[in-house]
């Protein structure tokens, strides 16, 4: 076949390559979704640098967030690298690092507590403890499976994610709550948070249950998702310790630059600090 065409066989080969690279199933799914979206735009045409640039411009014109565009382009560039089409790489959009985040997205401690109270009032003990486990340890929602009966009993969990293994400590209060839940649910071993099929809960189920709390708790749905609990843990830890390197290790980050994103303050906090400088006479 003449020209550079991405076929079904290409997609299967790339997916297998990602598996051999030991990418997580979630990461592989994300890469493949981005590439399929690109192929809809391509519509069977030969891949050219001009076509890739046109795709990037189309995403911009359609109003996609810069972070989303860069993430989608990164997936495509990974495929191009695997194919050896390095000259076809398209540049991501350069963005100046933000010094503060939107208050519309940041979950506060008060809102977190309202979510807990609502889950408890609804009798959803499992979700009540899931929220506290993620927020109290800083783990990813995909890492909940490593919170096992055995881990709870010894007060620490061995978490493996993205090719790295780390120890996550469970504070005494959380450990006590989880032990009580384990006894009530008669869970003998394995993951604590399981569904009716006995398998660890997936992120979709947890996300859906969290969204169901929003209206009763009086918290904006835009703030309520599992990863925001991890962000809340990071911000509170950093305010207490002011040690970004230690926080990066706790969160399982390879780069401190990733950790920086988690601890940026809101616009209101940033404005207060500027006011406190008293540089305007």
Note down, in words, how this protein is organized.
- A two-stranded parallel ribbon has the order 1-4. It has a two-stranded antiparallel sheet with strand order 2-3.
- The mean pLDDT is 90.
- It has two domains: 81 residues, Tyrosine recombinase, N-terminal domain (DNA polymerase, domain 1), CATH 1.10.150.130; 116 residues, hpI Integrase, Chain A, CATH 1.10.443.
- The protein contains 14 helices and four strands.
- The protein is mostly helical and 281 residues long.
Helical/strand content category: mainly alpha
| Envelope shape | globular
Q: What is the assigned CATH homologous superfamily of the largest domain?
A: Intergrase catalytic core
Helix segment tally: 14
Helix content: 55-70%
* Topology-level CATH name of the largest domain: hpI Integrase, Chain A
Strand order of the largest sheet: 1-4
- Average pLDDT rating: 90
């Amino acid at each position: 076949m003449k020209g550079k065409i991405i076929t079904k066989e290409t997609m299967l080969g790339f997916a297998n390559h990602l598996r051999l690279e030991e990418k997580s199933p979630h990461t592989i799914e994300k890469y493949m979704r981005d590439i399929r979206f690109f192929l809809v735009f391509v519509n069977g045409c030969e891949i050219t640098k001009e076509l890739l640039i046109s795709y990037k411009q189309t995403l911009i014109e359609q109003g996609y967030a810069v972070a989303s565009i860069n993430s989608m382009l990164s997936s495509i560039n990974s495929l191009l690298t695997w194919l050896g089409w390095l000259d076809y790489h398209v540049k991501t959009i350069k963005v100046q690092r933000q010094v503060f985040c939107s208050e519309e997205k940041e979950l506060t401690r008060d809102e977190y507590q309202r979510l807990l109270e609502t889950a408890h009032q609804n009798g959803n003990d499992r979700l009540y403890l899931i929220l506290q486990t993620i927020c109290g340890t800083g783990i990813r929602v995909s890492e909940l499976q490593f919170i096992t009966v055995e881990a709870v009993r010894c007060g620490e969990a061995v978490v493996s994610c993205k090719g790295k293994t780390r120890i996550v400590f469970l504070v005494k209060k959380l450990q006590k709550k989880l032990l009580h839940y384990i006894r009530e649910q008669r869970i003998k071993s394995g993951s604590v948070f399981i569904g009716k099929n006995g398998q660890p809960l997936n992120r979709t189920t947890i996300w859906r249950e969290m969204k169901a709390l929003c209206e009763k708790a009086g918290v904006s749905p835009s703030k309520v998702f599992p990863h925001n609990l991890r962000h809340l843990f990071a911000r509170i830890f950093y305010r207490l310790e002011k040690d970004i390197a230690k926080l990066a290790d706790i969160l399982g980050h390879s780069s401190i630059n990733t950790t920086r994103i988690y601890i940026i303050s809101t616009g209101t906090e940033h404005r207060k600090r500027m006011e406190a400088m008293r540089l305007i006479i």
